[in-house]
Amino acid sequence: MHGEDRRRVTRGLIALGLGASPFVGGAVVFAVLWRLRRQQRHRHQPRPDEALLEGDEVGEEAAKADVDDPWPAASKRKPGSSRGQEDEVEHLSTVLLDETLPIGARDLWRLVMADPEFFDSIQKLNKHRATKLGRWQLTKDGGAERRVMYITPIEKQLVGPKEAQCRETHHCTGPPDSSWQVDVRVQTPKVPYGNSFHSHLRWAARSVDGKHTHLKITCQVVFTGSCMMKGVVKKASIQGMKESYSKYRVHLLQRLKVGGGVAPPRAKQQGNGGRQAQQLLLLLLLGAVLIITYLALAEKQDGERNMAAHALHRGRALAAAAFAGLARSAAGAAATAAASLQALQRQTAQIAGVPS
Question: Tens digit of pLDDT for each residue in 7-40?
C-alpha cells in the first residue's frame, strides 16, 4: 500500500470513528480498498501491447555455437510449404536495403536469421551491449517467432538519454524455402514517447535462380499513442535505421565476398564541411592557383618579349644612326681633303709665280 493510499484510509477511518461524516469515511475506505484489490488482481496481467515491454527475458536463449533453425531439413518438408513470395509481399514505405545476393534463399535465412556468430558480429558493428537472443519458437500459424533485447547507444542526441533499451519481436511467416518473410517490431519504451510508437521492419527474400536471392528490407514508424513530436520522432527513427542498415549492407556483402562492399557516402560527408566538399574546394583552389600562375608566366613572357623587341628596335635605330654618322663623317673628311688639296695647289702656284 502506497503512502497516499494509507493517508486516505487513515482519514476515512478517523472520519468514521469520530462520527463526523460516516458516509464519506466509509466511501473513502471502500474506494481505496477496491482500488488496491483491483491493482493486485491486474498486476500480473499486462495488456497485449505491453506484454512485450515488461521484464528483461526473451525466453529460452539461442545457443552460441549452433544455428537456430526451428524447421526440419528442407528435404523433409512438404513442397509448397514456403510462404512470403515477393510478388505477394506488401513492402513498407521506406527502403533500407535492396540487393541480389549470391546465396540461396534458405542459406541466406540461416545466415542472417539463425547464425549466432553472424548475429554477434552485427551487434558489435552497432556497438550494442547487454544482448539477449531468444530461440525461434514455432507458432500456430505455421511460422516462428523469437525475441531479442539489447542496449544501443544514441550518439547524435545532445539532451536526453545517451543509450536506449531495444526490444525486438521477430515473426517469420513460414519455412524459408524458395522465399521467406520476416516482420520485425522494435520497441524502445524508455526513450521519450517510447510507449507511443514502434518501428516496423519487413524482410522479404525471393530466390532468383537457386544460387541467388533478392533481399529487400523496408520499414515504417507506427504510432500507437498520442505524440506531440511525431515529425521529429519519425525522422530520427528513419534516419537511424538507414544508417544502421547502410553498415549492415556493407558487412553482409563482405561476409558473402561480394564486390562493392563499400559504404555509400554518408549524410555528414555530404553536408557542410564534409569531406567531399573539402575535396571540391581544394580542387577549385588548386585550379585557381594554376590559372593565376599561368597568367603570371604568360604576362612575364609577354613582358620579356616586349622588352626584347623594344631593345632590338632601339638597337636597329642606333645602328642606323651610327651608319649615318659614319657616312656623314666620311663625306666631311672627303670634302676637307679636297679643300686642303686646293689650298696646297694655290700656295704652290704663288710660290712658283704661276697664276692659279
Answer: 565 555 555 454 545 555 566 556 656 666 655 5
Domain boundaries, the chain: 3-45, 74-264, 275-356
Question: Cα separations (Å) of 284 from 102, 276, 280, 319?
Answer: 42, 12, 6, 52
Could you tell me the CA-to-CA distances from 66 to 61, 116, 155, 332 in Å, in that order?
12, 7, 33, 123
Q: Does domain 74-264 have CATH number 3.20.20.60?
A: no
Taking the C-alpha atoms of residue 168 and residue 203, their distance in angstroms, rounded to an integer, is 14
3-state secondary structure of 148: strand
How far is the C-alpha of 191 from the C-alpha of 292, rounded, in Å? 56
pLDDT digits (tens, 9 = 90+) for 100-110: 999 999 999 99
Rounded Cα distance between 314 and 316, Å, is 5
- Tell me 44's DSSP state: T
Write down the pTM of the prediction.
0.58
